[in-house]
Design goal:
Distance between the termini: 76 Å
Number of helices: 21
Low-confidence stretches: none
Structural class: mainly alpha
Strand content: under 5%
Mean pLDDT: 80
Radius of gyration: 25 Å
Order of helices and strands: HHHHHHHHHHHHHHHHHHHHH
Largest sheet: none
Shape: globular
Length: about 575
């Protein structure tokens, strides 16, 4: 169990309290709906850009992404290749339309174009997927910090949720935007400090260039994969096609993002904010993955545990598989010693086979880690609480707690919790506004401004409580960043297809879209389950494209059939 020094506690608490207090104080007194839900349309482009980035960059990004690179290398960056394309499309099509219609939510537009039931269905689809995601963005840092630090999981879930609820309910959209700007500054500083400290902790004769060579010897620097192999989850093509559709859905139709740029002073400010995000996001993700690769290089010179999840290690060492696990630990220590002899000559020898020797040693180590995960799974079969054997999400936090100096540990923990708060705040803000505008206001008699603001605050509070509840019952996943993207991919393609029908298929009417959306959602969930149970092979990123294509095809087919039937009648 890891304990924090008073310096780390001070840095952590002061950072978080300062951000929450500043956001609450700066945005006090929102009296009308425009101020509360659209921030009074005062945001500049840099605030929008940073807020959009902070909404997407949850704690999962800073916990899971380095672990993803540690295990699989830089290839995950391909997931974001579609983002710049999506930003251009949204700036050209979505933003001018939303601004012209003066909507508070993306789904208001659908009633003008189709009908109330289509607007309501799309809003409900958003509420379901974003409500689940909000719980996971709280659960993700809480489960990892509770395991590594020995903190109580339930208390962490409630604490993170309550901190977010305080300023999101009190200040609305502007409070979220203001706090996210400062949270992103903390996040950038923290990750840069972590990167330079990792490089600094490498042996003196290992320069950054040689560190990249060592990573490349074990295939960690392979960024691009142009294959069409569906067994590869992240390829150039899945990123460009599936990623573009996912990002179009997320930034163009997800209210947690739409609300960020609808707070802009003008169309130009909104567009500049999204372009700023499009230009910076891919390099940022590349850098975070590079941090994970440098952690991998660090552990070439420093012993790593067979499994980075301390709870999993403790479980298996207190089970009937303890001796088998200890044998694996001893074998890993021997591999590490052998690898040291190989790597010690890496920077001086001209032997071209050294890279192959390093790769072979790391491959053997990977096999040992896989055997360790199997033992942990066996040991946890009869346990009441599932213990995660896949330790990807624990790699970076393990490095932080065991290798960074006092004070900086508190800063990096503040980074993780700030990221959790920023993304959760956007989600709760969007959930509250969507419930208020698309369900409550639209389906009740007209309310006064004060009553609408009050209702929005209560709905935001309600969704905050629901998110905390989801976090408290959430289960573990192979990798938390993938879990959030999977949930999004199940719903986003369908929702994007509905919006594309509204924009570009003028002959399609509300009834056809409504029926098509219901059918599509059932089909997409079925496809995901078929892949999950290995009946078919379909990486989740493709669900975004498939869902979008299916809803458009079925709606056009239904409308054409209905039109032909009307003519014949």
């Amino acid at each position: 169990m890891q304990t924090l020094s008073w310096i780390d506690w001070s840095v952590l608490c002061v950072t978080l309290v300062a951000i929450v207090s500043y956001g609450t104080w700066q945005t006090r007194g929102s009296k009308n709906v425009k101020d509360y839900l659209r921030g009074g349309n005062t945001s500049k482009w840099w605030t929008i850009g940073l807020s959009v980035m902070a909404t997407q960059a949850s704690a999962i990004t800073f916990l899971s992404t380095p672990g993803q690179a540690f295990n699989d290398g830089m290839g995950f960056v391909q997931f974001y290749f579609g983002l710049p394309i999506a930003m251009v499309v949204i700036c050209m099509v979505f933003i001018p339309l939303y601004h012209r219609l003066k909507v508070y939510t993306a789904y208001e537009f659908l009633e003008n174009r189709f009908d109330l039931k289509t607007r309501t269905l799309t809003a409900i689809l958003f509420l379901i997927q974003r409500g689940l995601a909000a719980g996971i963005t709280i659960f993700a840092p809480a489960i990892i910090l509770s395991v590594v630090l020995g903190w109580d999981l339930l208390t962490l879930n409630i604490a993170i949720g309550l901190l977010v609820i305080i300023y999101t309910v009190s200040g609305g959209t502007r409070a979220v935007n203001v706090t996210q700007k400062h949270q992103m500054v903390v996040i950038f500083i923290g990750m840069l400090v972590a990167f330079f400290l990792i490089v600094d902790k490498l042996p003196q004769d290992i320069t950054f260039s040689k560190a990249l060579d060592i990573a490349g010897a074990s295939s960690k620097m392979e960024v691009l994969d142009f294959s069409f192999d569906l067994n590869n989850r992240y390829t150039f093509w899945s990123g460009i096609i599936g990623g573009t559709f996912l990002m179009l859905s997320y930034f163009g139709t997800d209210q947690s993002q739409v609300q960020r740029y609808l707070s802009g002073k003008s169309v130009k400010e909104m567009q500049l904010g999204l372009i700023f995000n499009g230009l910076l996001k891919v390099p940022m993700q590349f850098f975070i993955l590079l941090v994970g690769v440098m952690v991998f290089v660090f552990y070439q010179f420093n012993e790593a545990p067979v499994n980075f999840n301390p709870t999993a290690t403790e479980l298996v060492l207190n089970s009937e598989y303890a001796e088998d696990y200890k044998i694996l630990q001893e074998e890993q220590q021997q591999i590490f010693r052998d690898k040291q002899k190989i790597i010690s000559s890496f920077s001086t020898s001209e032997d071209k086979n050294i890279a192959k020797y390093v790769a072979a040693a790391n491959l053997a180590n990977d096999e040992l880690r896989k055997e360790a995960r199997d033992l942990i799974d066996k040991a946890s079969e009869n346990q009441d609480i599932k213990v995660e054997s896949n330790d990807m999400d624990y790699v970076f936090i393990h490095f932080i707690l065991n290798n960074l100096p006092r004070g900086l540990i508190g800063l990096l923990l503040a980074v993780i919790l700030s990221a959790a708060m920023s993304s959760t705040a956007s989600e709760l803000n969007a959930l509250g506004s969507t419930t208020t505008i698309d369900l409550y206001k639209r389906n009740t008699s007209e309310k006064t401004e004060a009553k609408m603001v009050k209702a929005s605050k209560w709905f935001t509070l309600l969704w905050g409580i629901i998110a905390i509840g989801v976090a408290c019952v959430a289960n573990l996943a192979e990798n938390l960043i993938q879990l959030v993207n999977i949930i999004g991919s199940i719903f986003y393609g369908n929702v994007l297809g509905i919006f594309l029908l509204a924009f570009f298929f003028k002959f399609v009417k509300g009834n056809a879209v409504f029926v098509s959306a219901l059918i599509t959602q059932v089909l997409v969930i079925a496809l995901y389950l078929l892949d999950e149970y290995e009946i078919i092979n379909l990486p989740f990123l493709w669900l975004n494209f498939i869902g979008c294509a299916i809803v458009i095809f079925i709606a056009c087919l239904l409308q054409t059939f209905s039109h032909d039937k009307t003519i014949n009648t």
